[in-house]
C-alpha cells in the first residue's frame, strides 16, 4: 500500500472499498475479543476456515473475525450477515454445521437463542431482548470490521469524518461542533470535551501540544475500553486525529495498560497501517497538518488512570498525582499543554462528526447527551457490555437488558463506577442514569462498571473488598489517603469479624468523610464512596454485624462459621453430622442431629432446608450437598434410643405450664419444658396431635407411622396431652391462669384459608386448601373428583395437587399459577415430582371468575399474564393481557393462595393481633402484650416452615423457664461457630481428580406405583450413596476447629 | 502580583507563591509536617489543609502546594478545617505515637484520644528526607519505593548507596524520629503535658476568631 497524497486519493480508495463490501455474499462473523477467545472463539475460527477451504466455499461465504460484540455471557457466538442470524455458545461440532447451513441458506433452529421468559427461539440478533433494548452506536461498529484490517474500516466509512474535517479546514468549527454535541468525558468525571479542547487550542505555551488517550482501565469488573481498543482501534485513532486537528495538537499518546495484550497488538497494527497510508505523520493527505501517534504502556497501577499521575508515568517517573492547578491543559507532559480523554470519548468523536452534533445531542437527557457503554457483570443473567442512551433507568438496564438475577437469589444492589463508586440499592433502581443523578445517589459514573449483587452478597464485605483494593492501589503520597484507607480497612475488618463496637461505625463514617475532604487527587477523594454509600443504604447490615454479630448473607467468615450451621433456625450442626456420616459414624451423626432437633425424622422428610440454600458447595455454579437426604439416611438407619435427652430438674417446685396446640411448635416447647421438670398440659383442638404435620402434610411425604413414633417419643410423664380441647370454645386464657398454670404458650397454627375474592367461591366443588387437605389427611375423605384445578404455587398448592392425583375419582389435575415456574415459592423437587406424576402446570394465568351450572362448579375463566414491571420483591409483576381470557372446565377447584391464623376469639382475651391477623409478639422474647402469655409458630408468622415452628418452640421453652424464675428474658444471640473437631477423611490426589462432584439424585419410587397410593415417594439413600454425598462436603468447619498450620 | 483574601484579610503576593506562603506572610498559624523552606512542596502530610472557595463550592486543599490565585477566599481555621485536621492528627498519632513533633501538634490541637490501633511506625513517609537528599545534598541516594500500604523510603534494593555521603541531612529533618518522647507507657503516648487550651470560639462561630499563638481563652461575653 502506498502513501495517500491527497484527499481525492483517499476518497478513491474509500469508494473502491465501499463497493467491495456491497455484495450479498453471506458472511460468518466470529467475535474474538479477549472474552471470545477465552471461551473458545479461536477454535471456531479454525473450524470455520477448515470447512470453508475443504468444501471450497471461499467464493460463496466470507469470514470476518471481529472484536467483542458485547454479549459475553453467550460467547463464543457466531453472527451470520447480512441476515443477522445469531448463534450463541457455539461448540466446535456445531461450527461445521453452521458453515453447511449458511451455504444452503438455512437456519439451524435448534442452535438459536431461547428466550428465558417465553421459551421461544429467536433468530435475529436484534430481536433478542439483550440487544433489542440497547442503542449501540459504538458497539455495533465492532461487528462490521476486522480490527486488524484498515481497509475494512475505511470500507465501512472509516476516516471519512476526519477527511471531512480536513476538507472543511476550520478547526474552530470542529470545536464548536463538539461543544454543541454536549459530549462529556466518558472517563467518569464528565468534563465537557469541547471545552477541554478549546482550552488546549488557546494555549500559547510553545509549539508542542499533546493529546492523550487514557486507556488505563483498572476498575474491577469494567472492560468497555478494552473492547473498543480490541474491536475498533481505528475509531480511536480517527477521533484523536480529529481532536488534534481541532486543537492544534502535534503529538498523541495512547496510554494503555500492559495487561491488555490483545488491545496493544491491535493498536500497534492499526497505527502502523495508518502511518503506511499516510493518515498519520507529516503533512497528512497533503493538507499541511501533521500528527504523530505513539503507544505508552502502563504497568497496571490503578492510580495512573488519574491524569496527573498518568502524565508522570508517561514521563517515566513514579506514577503519583500532583496538585492541580496547574491543570494538564496548561502544563502537562514535559510541561507542554496536554489534553487527556478516555477511550470511549475518542470513539464518540467520529460518530459526532459523521452524524452531526444535533443528532448526538438529541440522544440522552439534558446536559447528558449521547450513549454510554456499561459493563454489566456480577449476579446477572446477561453478562456483557451494554450501550444505552444516557438517562435510561437502572431497572431497564438490569432487568430489561440484563435479564435480572441468574438464579433464585434476589438482586439487592448494583455497584457503579468501580472502587471509587458506590452501591445503589434495588429500591433506587428507577433512577435514570447520568453523571448528575449518580453523583446525587452517592455513586459516580466512573468508567461505567456495573456490578450487580444479590442476597448472597454481604455489603460490608463489598465495602471491605473495595477498600482493600484501594489500600493497595493508593499511590501513598497523601497521608490521609494511604493511612486513612488502611484504617478504614482495619475498621471494616473489625466489623466483619465481630470485633466492632457501636463506636466503630461512627469512627468509620467520620474518617471516611475526612479522607474524602483532605486528599489531593480523585482516587482519595472518592475512596470513601464504597464505604459511605453502603453505610447510607445498608445501615441495617452494618448494625447486624456490629450488634447481633450476624452476617445475613453468610459471607463474613468469623460471624458465619459454617453457613449450614448458622442458617439453620435450630442451630443444627449440619457440617458435623455430614462429617460423621462421611466417616461411617452414624450413631454420632444421629446424636448431632437429635441434640438440637426433637423432630429429626420429620425434618428429614419435610424440612425446607435453608442449610442447602446457603451451602458453599452450591455457590458459583456448583450443587449443594443434599443435607436433608443425609439426615434422612441417618434417622432411618439409627434407632432413636441411641440418644437420651438430658434431664435437668433444677427448679425446686414443679410448676404447671399450658401449651395450646400440639403442632411442631407446641410439642417442641412442651418437650423442652418437660426436660426441665415442668408439668406441661398440651391442649389440642383436633382428635390427634401433630397440627399441620398430620393435617396439612400428606402421608406420601410423611408416613403417619413415622410421625406417630416421633410424637410418641416426646410425650413423657411430665406432659399431659388433652385432645378435642379448643381454645376459645372449651376454655380461655383466663381459665388457664385460674387453674394455676404459671405461663401459657400459644401455638395454634394458621388454619384459615385466604380467599380469592372472586364470585362463586362458595360454590359446591370449590374448597380452600386447608379444608381439602384436612379432610383427606385426618379423615380419609376424598373431596376431589373429575377434572381438578388447583390455584396457587406454594407448597400447599403442590400438596393439594398431588393429593388429588391420589384420590379415587380424579381424572386430571391442573395447577394454575400467576407467575412463571421459576418464581413458584414451593420446594423445587416437590414441583418436579408433581409434574412427573402427571400434574399439568399452567403458569402466567390468573383466575377471573368461577362459572357454575345448576349451582355446581363448571369451571373458571382465566386471563393470561405477561411479565410486567419489577416489584419490591425483585420479581416481575404479572400483568393481565386484555382479551386473553379463556375458559377451563373443572369439576373441583382448590384454592391455595395462603392461610391465616384463626384468631378472632383470641383478641377478645386481651392479646394484640396484627393487621395481617397474626399475634403480635416481642421478637426477642416471644412474649405477647399479656405477661406470661407467649406465642410462636404459624400463629405468629403466618404459614411458615416446620423448622421455624420448632425453633420458636425451643425458644419459648427457654423464655418461659426464665420468665417463671423471674430472670431477664432478653438474651444476646450467640454466634454459631463450629467447636467440635471431626477429623477429615484423607483424599488421595487421584480420587480427588476422579470425583465428578455431582449431587446425588434422590431415590424415589417409580411414578406408576404412586397413583392412588399413599406409599412414601422418597426413599432412603443407600449407604454408598450417603457416603458419596457426605464426602462432597467442603467442611467449612475445619477452618475453626482444626489447629491452623501456617504454611 | 496576585491579591487574595485570607480569613477575610486581603494580601498581595508574587505570582507563583503558594497559599501557605501567603498565610504565613500574614502570620496565621497553619501546622505542617512535610513542609520545609528550601525544599519543594509535596503536600504529603495534609496537615496544612485550608478551606477555599465560596458557598457551595468550598473545598479543602493543601496550602503548601496550592498556588495563590486572584480573588481566592481562604479560611485557615474553619470548623471543617479543624475537624479534618484533628482527624489527621489522630491518624498521625496512631501511626507514630512516639514522635515528639507529632505529640506537640496533638497537644496543641487538643487531640487527647486515639481511637485507632497504634502502630509504632518510625516513618510517616512525609518525604522530607528524600527531598533533602535530592534537592539540598544533591545526592538522590534515597527515594520512595512501592505504592499504597507497601510504600517505603530507602535505597534501591536496600543496598548501600554509593551516592550517600552519610551527611545526616535526612535524620536532621525527620519529624518522626527526631526527639522521641520517652513516655513509659507507649500505649498512652498522648501525654498532653504541653497542652494548650483548645480555641473556645469554635463553639460559637464557624471560624477561629483570633490567631494568638498560644490561644488565650478569650473572654467572650456570656449570653
Structural commentary:
The complex is a heterodimer of chains A (1047) and B (223). Chain A has 1047 residues and is of the alpha/beta class. Chain A has 6 domains: 7-127, 3-Layer(aba) Sandwich (Glutaredoxin), CATH 3.40.30.10; 150-362, NADH-ubiquinone oxidoreductase 51kDa subunit (Rossmann fold); 364-457, Ubiquitin-like (UB roll), CATH 3.10.20.600; 561-644 and 983-1040, Fumarate Reductase Iron-sulfur Protein, Chain B, domain 2; 656-751 and 901-964, FAD/NAD(P)-binding domain, CATH 3.50.50.60; 752-900, FAD/NAD(P)-binding domain, CATH 3.50.50. Chain A contains 44 helices and 33 strands. In chain A, the strands form 9 sheets. In chain A, strands 14-13-17-15-16 form a 5-stranded mixed β-sheet. A 5-stranded parallel β-sheet of chain A has the order 20-19-18-21-33. In chain A, β25 (810-817), α38 (828-836) and β26 form a beta-alpha-beta unit. In chain A, α9 packs antiparallel against α10 (193-202), α12 (233-247) crosses α15 (343-355) and α29 packs antiparallel against α31. Chain A starts with 6 loop residues before the first helix and ends in a 6-residue tail after the last helix. The model of chain A has no long low-confidence stretch (mean pLDDT 91). By secondary structure, chain B is of the alpha+beta class. Chain B folds into 2 domains: 2-117 and 190-203, Ubiquitin-like (UB roll) (Roll), CATH 3.10.20; 128-173, Alpha-Beta Plaits. Chain B has helices at residues 19-26, 79-95, 100-108, 128-136, 169-173, and strands at residues 2-6, 9-13, 49-52, 59-62, 73-75, 143-145, 152-154. A 5-stranded mixed β-sheet of chain B has the order 2-1-5-3-4, with helices on both faces. A two-stranded antiparallel ribbon of chain B has the order 6-7. In chain B, a hairpin with a 6-residue loop joins β3 (49-52) and β4 (59-62). In chain B, α2 runs antiparallel to α3 (100-108). In chain B, 37% of the residues are buried. The mean pLDDT of chain B is 85. At the A-B interface, α19, α20 and α21 of A face β4 and α2 of B.
Amino acid at each position: 500500500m502506498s502513501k495517500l497524497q491527497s484527499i481525492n486519493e483517499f476518497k478513491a480508495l474509500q469508494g473502491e472499498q465501499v463497493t467491495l463490501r456491497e455484495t450479498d455474499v453471506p458472511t460468518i462473523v466470529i467475535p474474538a475479543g479477549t472474552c471470545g477467545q477465552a471461551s473458545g472463539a479461536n477454535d471456531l475460527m479454525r473450524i470455520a476456515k477448515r470447512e470453508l477451504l475443504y468444501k471450497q466455499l471461499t467464493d460463496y461465504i466470507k469470514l470476518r473475525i471481529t472484536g467483542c460484540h458485547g454479549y459475553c455471557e453467550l460467547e463464543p457466538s457466531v453472527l451470520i450477515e447480512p441476515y443477522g442470524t445469531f448463534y450463541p455458545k457455539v461448540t466446535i461440532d456445531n461450527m461445521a454445521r453452521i458453515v453447511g447451513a449458511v451455504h444452503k441458506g438455512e437456519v439451524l433452529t435448534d442452535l438459536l437463542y431461547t428466550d428465558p421468559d417465553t421459551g421461544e427461539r429467536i433468530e435475529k440478533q436484534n430481536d433478542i431482548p439483550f440487544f433489542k433494548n440497547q442503542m449501540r452506536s459504538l458497539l455495533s461498529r465492532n461487528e462490521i470490521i476486522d480490527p486488524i484490517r484498515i481497509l475494512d474500516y475505511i470500507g465501512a466509512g472509516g476516516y471519512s469524518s476526519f477527511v471531512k474535517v480536513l476538507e472543511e479546514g476550520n478547526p474552530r468549527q470542529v470545536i464548536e461542533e463538539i461543544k454543541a454535541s454536549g459530549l462529556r468525558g466518558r472517563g467518569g468525571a464528565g468534563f465537557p470535551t469541547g471545552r477541554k479542547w478549546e482550552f488546549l487550542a488557546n494555549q500559547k505555551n510553545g509549539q508542542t501540544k499533546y493529546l492523550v488517550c487514557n486507556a488505563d482501565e483498572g476498575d474491577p469488573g469494567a472492560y468497555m475500553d478494552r473492547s473498543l481498543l480490541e474491536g475498533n482501534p481505528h475509531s480511536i485513532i480517527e477521533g484523536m486525529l480529529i481532536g488534534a486537528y481541532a486543537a492544534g495538537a502535534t503529538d498523541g499518546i495512547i496510554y494503555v495498560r500492559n495487561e491488555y495484550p490483545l488491545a496493544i497488538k491491535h493498536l500497534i497494527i492499526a497505527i502502523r497501517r495508518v502511518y503506511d497510508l499516510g493518515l498519520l505523520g507529516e503533512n497528512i493527505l497533503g493538507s499541511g497538518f501533521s500528527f504523530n501517534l505513539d503507544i505508552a504502556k502502563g504497568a497496571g497501577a490503578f492510580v495512573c488512570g488519574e491524569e496527573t499521575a498518568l502524565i508522570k508515568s508517561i514521563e517515566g517517573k513514579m506514577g503519583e498525582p500532583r496538585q492541580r492547578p496547574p491543570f494538564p491543559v496548561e502544563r502537562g507532559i514535559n510541561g507542554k499543554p496536554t489534553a487527556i480523554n478516555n477511550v470511549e470519548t475518542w470513539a464518540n468523536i467520529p460518530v459526532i462528526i459523521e452524524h452531526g452534533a444535533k443528532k448526538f445531542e438529541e440522544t440522552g437527557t439534558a446536559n447528558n447527551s449521547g450513549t454510554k457503554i456499561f459493563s454489566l457483570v456480577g449476579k446477572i443473567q446477561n453478562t456483557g457490555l451494554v450501550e444505552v442512551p444516557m438517562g435510561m433507568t437502572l431497572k431497564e438496564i438490569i432487568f430489561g437488558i440484563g435479564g435480572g438475577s441468574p438464579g433464585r437469589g434476589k438482586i439487592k444492589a448494583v455497584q457503579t463506577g468501580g472502587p471509587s463508586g458506590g452501591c445503589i440499592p434495588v429500591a433506587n433502581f428507577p433512577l435514570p442514569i447520568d453523571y448528575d443523578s449518580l453523583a446525587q445517589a452517592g455513586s459516580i459514573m466512573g468508567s461505567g462498571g456495573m456490578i450487580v449483587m444479590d442476597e448472597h452478597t454481604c455489603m460490608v464485605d463489598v465495602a471491605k473488598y473495595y477498600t482493600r483494593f484501594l489500600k493497595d492501589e493508593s499511590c501513598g503520597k497523601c497521608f490521609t489517603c494511604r493511612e486513612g484507607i488502611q484504617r478504614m480497612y482495619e475498621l471494616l475488618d473489625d466489623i466483619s469479624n465481630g470485633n466492632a463496637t457501636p463506636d466503630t461505625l461512627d469512627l468509620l463514617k467520620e474518617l471516611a468523610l475526612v479522607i474524602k475532604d483532605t486528599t489531593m487527587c480523585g482516587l482519595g477523594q472518592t475512596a470513601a464512596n464504597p464505604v459511605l454509600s453502603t453505610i447510607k443504604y445498608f445501615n441495617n447490615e452494618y448494625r447486624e454485624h456490629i450488634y447481633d454479630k450476624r452476617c445475613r448473607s453468610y459471607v463474613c467468615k468469623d460471624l458465619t462459621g459454617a453457613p449450614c450451621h448458622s442458617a439453620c433456625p435450630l442451630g443444627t450442626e449440619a457440617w458435623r453430622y455430614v462429617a460423621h456420616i462421611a466417616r461411617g459414624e452414624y450413631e454420632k451423626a444421629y446424636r448431632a442431629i437429635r441434640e438440637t432437633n426433637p423432630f429429626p425424622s420429620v425434618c428429614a422428610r419435610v424440612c425446607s432446608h435453608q442449610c442447602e440454600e446457603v451451602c458453599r458447595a452450591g455457590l458459583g455454579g456448583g450443587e449443594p450437598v443434599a443435607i436433608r437426604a443425609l439426615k434422612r439416611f441417618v434417622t432411618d438407619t439409627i434407632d432413636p434410643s441411641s440418644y437420651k435427652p438430658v434431664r435437668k430438674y433444677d427448679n425446686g417446685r414443679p410448676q404447671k405450664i399450658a401449651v395450646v396446640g400440639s403442632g411442631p411448635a407446641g410439642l417442641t416447647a412442651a418437650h423442652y419444658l418437660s426436660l426441665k421438670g415442668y408439668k406441661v398440659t398440651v391442649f389440642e383442638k383436633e382428635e390427634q396431635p401433630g397440627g399441620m404435620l398430620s393435617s396439612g402434610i400428606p402421608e406420601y411425604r410423611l408416613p403417619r407411622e413415622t410421625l406417630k413414633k416421633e410424637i410418641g417419643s416426646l410425650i413423657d410423664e411430665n406432659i399431659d396431652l388433652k385432645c378435642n380441647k379448643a381454645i376459645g370454645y372449651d376454655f380461655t386464657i383466663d381459665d388457664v391462669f385460674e387453674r394455676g398454670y404459671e405461663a401459657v404458650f400459644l401455638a395454634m397454627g394458621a388454619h384459615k384459608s385466604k380467599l380469592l375474592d372472586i364470585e362463586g367461591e362458595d360454590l359446591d366443588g370449590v374448597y380452600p386448601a386447608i379444608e381439602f387437605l384436612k379432610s383427606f389427611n385426618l379423615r380419609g375423605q376424598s373431596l376431589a373428583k373429575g377434572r381438578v384445578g388447583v390455584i396457587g404455587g406454594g407448597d400447599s398448592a403442590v400438596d393439594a395437587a398431588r393429593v388429588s392425583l391420589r384420590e379415587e375419582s380424579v381424572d386430571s389435575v391442573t395447577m394454575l399459577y400467576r407467575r412463571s415456574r421459576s418464581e413458584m415459592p414451593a420446594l423445587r423437587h416437590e414441583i418436579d415430582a408433581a409434574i412427573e406424576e402427571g400434574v399439568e402446570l399452567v403458569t402466567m394465568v390468573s383466575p377471573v371468575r368461577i362459572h357454575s351450572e345448576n349451582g355446581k362448579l363448571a369451571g373458571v375463566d382465566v386471563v393470561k399474564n405477561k411479565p410486567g414491571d419489577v416489584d419490591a420483591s425483585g420479581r416481575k409483576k404479572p400483568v393481565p393481557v386484555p382479551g386473553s381470557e379463556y375458559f377451563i372446565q373443572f369439576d373441583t377447584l382448590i384454592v391455595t393462595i395462603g392461610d391465616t391464623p384463626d384468631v378472632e376469639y383470641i383478641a377478645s382475651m386481651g392479646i394484640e393481633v396484627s393487621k395481617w391477623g397474626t399475634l403480635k409478639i416481642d421478637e426477642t422474647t416471644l412474649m405477647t402484650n399479656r405477661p406470661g402469655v407467649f406465642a410462636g409458630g404459624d400463629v405468629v408468622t403466618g404459614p411458615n416452615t416446620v423448622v421455624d415452628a420448632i425453633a420458636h418452640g425451643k425458644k419459648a421453652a427457654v423464655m418461659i423457664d426464665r420468665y417463671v424464675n423471674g430472670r431477664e428474658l432478653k438474651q444476646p444471640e450467640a454466634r454459631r461457630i463450629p467447636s467440635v473437631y471431626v477429623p477429615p477423611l484423607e483424599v488421595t490426589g487421584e480420587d480427588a481428580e476422579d470425583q465428578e462432584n455431582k449431587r446425588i439424585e434422590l431415590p424415589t419410587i417409580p411414578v406408576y406405583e404412586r397413583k392412588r397410593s399413599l406409599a412414601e415417594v422418597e426413599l432412603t439413600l443407600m449407604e454408598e450413596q450417603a457416603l458419596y454425598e457426605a464426602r462432597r462436603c467442603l467442611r467449612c468447619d475445619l477452618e475453626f476447629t482444626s489447629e491452623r498450620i501456617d504454611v | 502580583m496576585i491579591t487574595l483574601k485570607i480569613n477575610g484579610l486581603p494580601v498581595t503576593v508574587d505570582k507563583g507563591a503558594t497559599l501557605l506562603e501567603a498565610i504565613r506572610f500574614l502570620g496565621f498559624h497553619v501546622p505542617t509536617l512535610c513542609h520545609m523552606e528550601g525544599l519543594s512542596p509535596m503536600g504529603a502530610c495534609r496537615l496544612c489543609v485550608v478551606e477555599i472557595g465560596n458557598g457551595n463550592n468550598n473545598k479543602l486543599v493543601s496550602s503548601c502546594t496550592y498556588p495563590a490565585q486572584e480573588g481566592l477566599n481562604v479560611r485557615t481555621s474553619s470548623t471543617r478545617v479543624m475537624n479534618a485536621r484533628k482527624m489527621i492528627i489522630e491518624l498521625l498519632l496512631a501511626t507514630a505515637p512516639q514522635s515528639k513533633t507529632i505529640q506537640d501538634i496533638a497537644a496543641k490541637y487538643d487531640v487527647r484520644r486515639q481511637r485507632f490501633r497504634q502502630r509504632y511506625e518510625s516513618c510517616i513517609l512525609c518525604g522530607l528526607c528524600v527531598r533533602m537528599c535530592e534537592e539540598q545534598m544533591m545526592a538522590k541516594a534515597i527515594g520512595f519505593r512501592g505504592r499504597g500500604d507497601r510504600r517505603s523510603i530507602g535505597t534501591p534494593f536496600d543496598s548501600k548507596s554509593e551516592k550517600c555521603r552519610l551527611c545526616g541531612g535526612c535524620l536532621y529533618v525527620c519529624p518522626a524520629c527526631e526527639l522521641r518522647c520517652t513516655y513509659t507507657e507507649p500505649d498512652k503516648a498522648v501525654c498532653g503535658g504541653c497542652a494548650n487550651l483548645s480555641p473556645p470560639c469554635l463553639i460559637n462561630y464557624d471560624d477561629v476568631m483570633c490567631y494568638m499563638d498560644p490561644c488565650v481563652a478569650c473572654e467572650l461575653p456570656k449570653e
